[in-house]
Design goal:
By secondary structure, the protein is α/β, with parallel strands linked by helices. The protein has a single domain, classed as Spore Coat Polysaccharide Biosynthesis Protein SpsA, Chain A (Alpha-Beta Complex), CATH 3.90.550. Helices cover 20% and strands 29% of the residues. The protein has 4 helices and 10 strands; from the N terminus they run βαββαββαβββαββ. Strands 1, 2, 3, 4, 5, 6, 7, 8, 9 and 10 form a 10-stranded mixed beta sheet that branches. The chain is globular, with a radius of gyration of 15 Å. The two termini are 23 Å apart. The model has no long low-confidence stretch (mean pLDDT 95).
Length: 196
């Protein structure tokens, strides 16, 4: 059902990212790892594809790298995780739960835990929508939307805002499934927010 796109510049944390995928409770996922300007590494797990591209991303501007991989996705949904982040072991299970609860939804925003923001949880539990600088790459959207990133310091927000402005149904999941430069841990759930 879902393919994770992982742009990488060869950080040594990439293995942690991959391990968090392999540890999923549900095995129903694929991944495309895009080595940006470096030789790719092959993985024995047949759910993981790895490719190498000429250097096209820059720090905090991985959108162009992600766009290349989006074109290779064969599943109905595409999701993202960075090579220095991890996802909870129930990410795919929670994703399936959101799709089952809301079959018309086109984009699911999962909450992320980050030590780099005073709110710690993004989108913040008290927000009824997502706003610039308070939402991250912790989302999945239907491939049929054909959405692409525009490189900027807020490229994740810009893509989500584009989906919102096109009036596609979106949901902010109550679950924290994405961990920015942290190891996944048990987290409380918050309210589910519907958009459009």
């Amino acid at each position: 059902m879902i393919t994770f796109i992982i742009p990488t510049i060869g950080r040594n944390t990439l293995q942690n990212t991959i391990d968090s995928l392999i540890d999923q409770e549900s095995p129903e996922w694929k991944a495309i790892i895009v080595f940006d300007g470096m030789e790719n590494v092959k993985y024995s797990d047949n759910r993981i594809m790895s490719i190498s591209v000429e250097k096209c991303g820059k720090l905090n501007h991985a959108g162009l790298v992600r766009n290349i991989a989006i074109n290779l996705v064969t599943t109905d949904w595409v999701a993202f995780v960075d090579d220095d982040d991890t996802i909870s072991k129930d990410y795919v299970s929670r994703f399936k739960e959101e799709v089952d609860l809301n079959p018309a939804v086109k984009c699911i925003i999962f909450r992320m835990k980050t030590k780099y923001d005073p709110d710690k949880i993004l989108p913040a539990p008290n927000h009824n929508n997502f706003i610039k600088n308070k939402v991250g790459i912790s989302f999945a959207f239907k491939k049929e939307l054909n959405s692409k990133f525009e490189p900027s310091l807020v490229e994740d927000f810009t893509l989500l805002d584009q989906i919102r402005s096109q009036n596609h149904k979106m949901v902010i999941s109550p679950y924290v499934t994405y961990f920015v430069r942290e190891t996944p841990c048990a987290m409380p759930s918050y309210k589910r927010v519907f958009i459009n």
